[in-house]
Amino acid sequence: MHISTKTGYALRALAELADDEKKQPVSIAHICKKQNLPAKYIEQLFRKLKKNGIITSVHGSRGGYLLNRKATEISLKDIMQAVDENMNYTYCDNDQDPLAYCQGNNCGFRKIWDEIQTHLDDYFSSIKLDKILDKIKE
Fold it and tell me: pLDDT tens-digit profile of 72-123?
């Protein structure tokens, strides 16, 4: 199992938005400087996060980005679904070459992989952005 670079970068950028005590819009330039992230990449991720309702933008000279929901309401799964094209963690759902890993719907292992997928989805849904921030600050 591997958490994608997209998810990792999105988490780091969102941590900057969630950690802003003043709740003022934060620019991508500020986020990228503080987190040492590539601006073009974060712009792409922020478009996806905005499209999925996780963040919102404020235009103008003091514009930037804000969380669109409370950090307690944004799950790791929400973030992963917003920025990653593929949320399948198991072999049976390998888009590249499904037959290389699975023997089809009659495969006995598919039940196990589907169960693992469900447990991971539930687990990622239970991890909220505010708790991630708490862990970072420890």
Answer: 999 999 999 999 877 776 656 555 555 555 666 666 777 787 888 899 999 9
Taking the C-alpha atoms of residue 49 and residue 43, their distance in angstroms, rounded to an integer, is 10
In CATH terms, is domain 5-137 a member of 1.10.10.10?
yes
CA nearest to 92, candidates 108, 81, 76: 108
List the one residue out of 65, 53, 59 whose CA is nearest residue 29.
65
**Per-residue pLDDT tens over the stretch 36-73:** 999 999 999 999 999 999 999 999 988 999 999 999 99
**How far, in Å, CA of 64 to CA of 68, rounded?**
12
What are the structural domain ranges in the chain? 5-137
Question: How far is C-alpha 75 from the geometric centre of its chain's CA atoms?
Answer: 8
What residues have CB less than 8 Å from 78, skipping those under 6 apart?
52, 54
pTM, rounded to two decimals: 0.84
Phi then psi for 122, rounded to 5 degrees? -65, -45
| Pairwise CA distance, residues 77 & 10, whole Å | 12
Q: What is the distance between the alpha carbons of residues 106 and 94, in angstroms, rounded to a whole number?
A: 16
